[in-house]
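wait is this the right file?? whatever heres the structure
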């Protein structure tokens, strides 16, 4: 019975249920929403009121009119007691564990008596057609049978030997006692019988102690057996779903071979169902074991089942493993029938990628890649840049621009790298990179697209020039040594954000497309890396020769398999490498990537670099990169000018003295004046009135709250500046 909106309790405080629904609720042990229903017919408010009046009179029969017909039904009034239900459910579940424990012991005893382990392995080898394994397990079974037969044949001899040892031990004890008692009597140190009496007393004490301990042991033995059976059932058994409490539902389950087998069986694929029904174990090439933030296993599926078929039902498999769909990643292994499965620990992906590792310090050698994020296993992963090209995309707001910022920020921290960024849109995402770029265009106007086209022509010419330089230096590709030599072969990292806008431009799109194809094809060995970012990687918005030649693919949540394969390569969707499984919003910042590691694909949580006014994380990185370039004594790569000068320190009081006149100014208006005075000083760009007020208080400048405007008096600022200068002179003296 579905949950309905217009629910009402009856006047007696009980809840009215349809009889069939009440029986179902009693069976599955769940709570139903209070509602007036008579044998499946939902009552209107007027009908419910009439029913309530009859119930108040104590009648068990209600006559109500519904849809121009009179319905007469027996109505059951039931009050659900949640504590009672939970207690009953707990008792039944634990009793079932005890039964399952005894069942497990019986099964193990039967297996031990009938060589069940060997029989199952032999059946599995026969089913898989593995003759070598069949021969091996047959030999093992025969050896085990022979060893058991020998043990059984040896039992009479062992019993006779035990009897002889026992008789000999008793005889030796008697002889020893006789000798000891005789010596005691002869040496007059005691009586002959006293020795025997002492031994008999000791034997009696032992018998008494055993008797005392034996009685409580026998009385507690049934309880110990029940506890042992309960533990065995808890470990090996499974309670039905209707007995699982809410707390149990939230608990994690251990991902092991048994859990995986049950999840696969629940898919109801005929070959798997028939295989497991025969008692055949699944063949694990790699048994389930801890792998980073999850569990990894590789197994061979029964004949006729491909890993691709399992990958297509990832959501169903995830339910059997008690996981979210994004926490389960089934892919094709080295053969079509080998399933490579990775399952995240419950909730592990909520950790995210963490802070960008080069946020405050560090540099990059672009030949070794740039920091990008963390895999689902929790391992840091880099994006390879040299001799690569990258295509990235996904639905709006899922992180593709942030991924591009990660790559460009890493490239900026290599002093030899030249950055070129084109954004054919009104977009603030990359404005902080402008001082570090040799070419930067932002805007969707026709003249901006024309400028991008001109820059791409220039880059295309650069590709040809670099080819000639490589011939001159007798190198097949740019090396780190050549890149640092200042011979015109420094790395170029170019980003075309929202590439589909430029490619689909009515006037310039066709030439832009052809230039992109040529650059992607030829620029790779010439230290030119092209990053194309788009929301819509289709055959119309992205040339196929571009997608085919981009060895790096970054796919955030996409809408269909066409976009998925455009970003991750042909056949990626069918093989289970699916960004379509990522949920927009929920999986923001998570991408499926190709070309980053030895794996066909990886799920990566991408580092996030903020560019908002109040938390600008990119500008400090750009400032560091410019300072590093300045320290080399060279100009900004790709230009004939020196890198912009970097301000390393400023005096707040001196700047306030310069921007303030003679009249008080509201503290909220001062950050803008400071930012105009020092536009490259990051602390002023993100400064707020409240933060400035706090800083002034630390410097001894009191800001009164006059009419809640907090005016700053220039006299107090200059007094504080004078005190500061005096203190500095005192320190020098």
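ok assuming it is, sequence goes like this
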């Amino acid at each position: 019975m579905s949950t309905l909106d217009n629910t009402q309790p009856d006047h007696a405080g009980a809840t009215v249920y349809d009889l069939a629904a009440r029986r179902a609720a009693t069976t599955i042990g769940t709570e139903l929403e209070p509602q007036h229903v008579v044998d499946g017919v939902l009552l209107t408010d007027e009908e419910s009121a009439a029913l309530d009046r009859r119930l108040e009179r104590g009648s068990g029969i209600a006559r109500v009119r519904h849809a121009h017909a009179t319905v007469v039904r027996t109505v059951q009034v039931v009050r659900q007691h949640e504590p009672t239900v939970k207690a009953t459910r707990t008792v039944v579940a634990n009793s079932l564990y005890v039964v399952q424990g005894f069942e497990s012991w019986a099964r193990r005893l039967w297996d031990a008596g009938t060589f069940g382990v060997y029989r199952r392995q032999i059946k599995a080898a026969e089913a898989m057609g593995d003759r070598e394994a069949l021969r091996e397990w047959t030999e093992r079974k025969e050896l085990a049978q022979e060893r058991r037969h020998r043990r059984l044949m040896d039992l009479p001899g062992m019993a006779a030997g035990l009897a002889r040892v026992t008789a000999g031990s008793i005889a030796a004890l008697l002889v020893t006692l006789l000798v000891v008692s005789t010596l005691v009597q002869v040496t007059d140190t005691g009586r002959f019988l006293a020795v025997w009496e002492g031994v008999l007393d000791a034997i009696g004490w032992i018998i008494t102690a055993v008797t005392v301990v034996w009685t409580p042991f026998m009385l507690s033995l049934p309880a110990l057996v029940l506890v042992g059976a309960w533990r065995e059932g808890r470990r090996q058994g499974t309670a039905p779903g209707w007995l699982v409490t809410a707390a149990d539902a939230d608990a994690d389950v251990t991902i092991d071979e048994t859990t995986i087998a049950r999840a696969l069986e629940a898919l109801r694929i005929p070959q798997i169902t028939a295989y497991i029904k025969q008692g055949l174990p699944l063949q694990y090439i790699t048994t389930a074991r801890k792998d980073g933030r999850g569990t990894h296993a590789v197994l061979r599926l029964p004949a006729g089942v491909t890993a691709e078929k399992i990958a297509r039902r990832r959501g169903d498999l995830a339910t059997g493993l008690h996981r979210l769909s994004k926490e389960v990643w089934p892919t094709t292994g080295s053969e079509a029938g080998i399933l490579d499965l990775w399952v995240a620990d419950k909730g592990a992906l909520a950790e995210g990628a963490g802070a960008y590792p080069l946020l405050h310090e560090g540099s990059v050698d672009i030949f070794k890649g740039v920091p990008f994020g963390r895999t689902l296993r929790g391992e840091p992963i880099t994006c390879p840049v040299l001799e690569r090209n990258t295509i990235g995309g996904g639905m709006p707001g899922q992180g593709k621009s942030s991924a591009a910022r990660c790559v460009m920020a890493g490239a900026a921290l290599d002093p030899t790298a030249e950055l070129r960024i084109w954004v054919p849109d009104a977009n603030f995402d990359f404005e902080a990179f402008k001082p570090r770029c040799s070419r930067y265009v932002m805007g969707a106007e026709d003249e901006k697209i024309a400028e991008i086209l001109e820059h791409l022509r220039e880059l295309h010419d650069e590709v040809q020039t670099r080819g000639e330089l490589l011939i001159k230096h007798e190198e097949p590709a740019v090396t780190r040594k050549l890149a640092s030599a200042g011979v015109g072969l420094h790395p170029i990292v170019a980003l075309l954000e929202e590439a589909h806008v430029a490619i689909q431009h009515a006037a310039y799109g066709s030439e832009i497309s052809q230039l992109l194809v040529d650059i992607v094809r030829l620029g790779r060995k010439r230290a030119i890396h092209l990053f194309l970012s788009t929301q819509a990687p289709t055959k119309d918005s992205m040339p196929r020769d571009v997608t085919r030649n981009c060895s790096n693919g970054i796919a955030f949540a996409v809408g269909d398999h066409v976009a998925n394969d455009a970003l991750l390569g042909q056949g990626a969707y069918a093989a289970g490498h699916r960004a379509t499984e990522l949920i927009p919003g929920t999986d923001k910042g998570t991408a499926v990537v190709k070309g980053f590691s030895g794996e066909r694909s990886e799920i990566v949580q991408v580092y996030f670099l903020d560019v908002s006014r109040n938390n600008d994380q990119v500008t400090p990185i750009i400032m560091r990169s410019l300072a590093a370039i300045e320290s080399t004594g060279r100009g900004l790569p790709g230009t004939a000018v020196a890198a912009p000068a970097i301000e390393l320190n400023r005096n707040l009081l001196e700047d306030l003295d310069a921007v303030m006149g003679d009249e008080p100014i509201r503290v909220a208006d001062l950050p803008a004046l400071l930012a105009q005075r020092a536009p490259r000083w990051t602390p002023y760009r993100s400064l707020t009135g409240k933060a400035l007020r706090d800083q002034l208080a630390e410097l001894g400048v009191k800001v009164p709250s006059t009419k809640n405007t907090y005016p700053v008096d220039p006299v107090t600022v200059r007094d504080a500046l004078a005190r500061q200068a005096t203190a500095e002179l005192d320190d020098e003296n």
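The chain is about 45% helix and 15% strand. so i think its the right one actually
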